[in-house]
Design a protein that fits this description.
Blueprint (H helix, E strand, L loop, with lengths): L1 E5 L4 H12 L3 E6 L4 E3 L2 E5 L8 H4 L4 E4 L12 H24 L6 E7 L10 E2 L10 H14 L7 E7 L1 E3 L6 H9 L12 E2 L1 E3 H13 L5 E5 L5 E2 H12 L9 H8 L4 H4 L3 E2 L2 H5 L9 H8 L5
Parallel strand pairs: 1-2, 1-5, 2-4, 5-6, 6-8, 7-14, 8-12, 9-11
Antiparallel strand pairs: 3-4, 10-13
């Protein structure tokens, strides 16, 4: 397929591009830099005045929208939260304009999303059918993002919202910060330890997106999380075990709030989310357990 990716230079985007290239797809990455061809990737300039990417794209089988300021970088000041929100809305608006301008429409739009749409809970179990949504910054951002992307359905395009959990990878996401205290021999339970961590290996994220591209029965929200979420205290103990480091110094909630501010909700609160749609459609996780995921990332023998 000919696939256009917005946000292709980010943590997920780079890994996804490698996965799709290995599958033989033609990749176009929307970029703020100059348009160019680099090997098997065509970069097309966008999000600048007087630039019309549709003239270089001409047609595409699929669009993937990963564009937006990372929620993992920086303190959640009012300015940064505005950037997180605005970057997603503006990029999606432009992507929808490009699609509308194309004479031949793509068959599918894969839009990034997040399990932060679900209300934080230690006990609730969420599937794609759940509608107990969070009334906070992240919840409202995700809801508005999905609503905007869904508007392209009126043009007969299948839309899939990939609701990512806590993505585990060495080059980005939350894991490097979670692992750092253990590398310094200062790891321990964060907050109460009872909050759920619905995690997923980066390789299963990219495989899940590729699966959604091919599987026409997938549409709407799709939870991209391991089938086996864990509580934070178990998560921490497993990190310590894999890295052969102690799990002994607790990090109280108030300390996390002082250090991270409002962003502390990412680690102090959680959701128990299950990938029901992926499993029902036959997707097989390469790393379903936390142990297998961390052992792979840190090159440990299982």
């Amino acid at each position: 397929m000919k696939i256009v990716i917005a946000g292709g230079s980010g943590f997920v985007g780079q890994k996804l591009t490698d996965t799709l290239l290995n599958e033989g797809h033609e990749i176009i990455i929307l970029s703020r830099k100059e348009s160019k061809i680099d090997g098997n990737i065509k970069y097309v300039k966008w999000l600048q005045k007087g630039i019309f990417p549709e003239n270089e794209i001409n047609s595409a089988d699929a669009f993937i929208n990963l564009a937006g300021v990372s929620i993992n970088k920086g303190r959640w000041t009012t300015k940064h939260r505005n950037q997180i929100y605005a970057s997603r809305m503006e990029a999606t608006d432009e992507l929808l304009r490009i699609i509308s301008a194309l004479q031949t429409k793509p068959a599918v739009l894969i839009n990034a999303s997040a399990i932060g749409i679900y209300r934080a809970s230690e006990d609730n179990v969420y599937t794609e059918e759940s509608q107990d949504y969070a009334d906070d910054f992240l919840g409202r951002t995700v809801m508005d993002w999905e609503k905007k992307a869904a508007s392209v359905e009126s043009e007969g395009i299948r839309v899939v919202f990939m609701r990512f959990g806590v993505i585990l990878g060495l080059d980005g996401g939350a894991l490097p910060l979670m692992v750092l205290p253990y590398k310094l021999f200062a790891g321990g339970t964060v907050g109460t330890g009872n909050q759920r961590v619905s995690w997923v290996h980066i390789k299963d994220v990219t495989r899940g997106i590729a699966f959604a591209l091919d599987n026409t029965s997938l549409y709407g929200p799709v939870n991209v999380t391991s089938p086996f979420p864990k509580r934070m205290k178990y998560f921490g103990k497993t990190i310590g075990s894999v890295l052969n480091r102690p799990h002994w110094i607790p990090v109280p909630s108030f300390a996390m709030k002082i250090v991270l501010g409002k962003k502390s909700a990412l680690v102090l609160e959680g959701q128990h989310v299950l990938p029901e749609k992926l499993l029902d459609n036959g997707f097989k996780f390469h790393y379903p357990t936390l142990e297998s995921a961390l052992n792979d990332l840190y090159n440990k023998d299982v």
